[in-house]
Amino acid sequence: MAKKLRIDKVLSNLGYGSRADLKKYCKQGLVKVNGKTISNPGTQVDTEVDKIEFDNKEVKYREFIYLMMNKPDGYLSATFDKRDPIVLDLIDSSYLNFEPFPVGRLDKDTEGLLVLTNDGQLAHRVLSPKKHVPKTYYAKIDGVVTDEDIKAFEKGVTLDDGYETMPAQLKILKSDDLSEIELTIHEGKFHQVKRMFESVGKKVVYLKRLSIGKLILDESLNLGEYRELTDEEVKLIEER
Ligand code: URA
């Protein structure tokens, strides 16, 4: 459906400057709609049909952004915190205009795939307990992980608060005093992976998320780096 918005709001959301800047730019004749110079920053535009230009360059309008981050240790998956660094501290201000937020939480010390978006509906669908979007983690475990653990996780384990987990798929990459595993879960309880291992008497000493749905972490991203998702990748987030 066509959506009419003020031109200064559209351009400021896209990172062209503050509303005050846009007022100035309109006066300077930098803003055109359908080839006509717009001096009134309150002019309403239809972002689906109107051709908007800034400084004679076409403006690509978009409502949503989707970012994939390789989250580093030490950052909270939050949009605000008084004390600790947050993942948004790592994001360029041109994206912050879109007011992105993390889709679900990783613990402060967990690394790996974090999706940030301003698409609330997508976030809701991905996080909905009914959708069972799978999430796969790589972890290092203090203790020998065994076939018994595979069976226990497949059956479901009881967490410290009495919650019975859904079947989860455990793959042992290395079974030793320090084991390495991959675990796929289909829900997202607080500290779920750590608490599942606690329930079998073992401790997660390193945790990294590898995938959400069919979206896999781009390993070329260093810790703390991020990039936009392609349209195809956005679809993969919800696929099972
Ligand atoms: N499970 C955890 O224990 N921690 C995370 O950050 C994600 C899943």
How would you characterize the overall build of this protein?
It is a single chain. This protein is an alpha+beta fold and 240 residues long. Helices cover 21% and strands 28% of the residues. It has seven helices and 15 strands. The two termini are 30 Å apart. Bound molecules: uracil. The site of uracil has 8 residues, from helix 6.
Query: Terminal Cα separation, in Å?
Result: 30 Å
Radius of gyration from the alpha-carbon trace, in angstroms: 22 Å
Q: What share of residues are in beta strands?
A: 25-35%
Structural class: alpha+beta
> Which range best describes the helical content: under 10%, 10-25%, 25-40%, 40-55%, 55-70% or over 70%?
10-25%
Q: What oligomeric state best describes the polypeptide chains here?
A: single chain
Pick out the low-confidence regions: none
How many E strands? 15
Indicate the mean pLDDT. Answer: 95
The shape, in one word, is elongated
Give the cofactors and ligands.
uracil
- Helix and strand succession? EHHEEEEEEHEEHEHEEHEEEH
Q: Largest sheet at a glance? A: 9 strands, mixed
Helix segment tally: 7
Topology (SSEs and partners):
Elements lengths: L3 E3 H7 L5 H9 L3 E3 L2 E2 L6 E3 L5 E3 L2 E2 L7 E6 L21 H4 L4 E2 L8 E7 L2 H8 L7 E8 L4 H9 L13 E6 L3 E8 L6 H8 L3 E10 L2 E2 L9 E3 L2 H6 L4
Parallel strand pairs: 9-13
Antiparallel strand pairs: 1-4, 2-3, 2-5, 5-6, 7-9, 7-15, 8-9, 10-12, 10-13, 11-12, 13-14
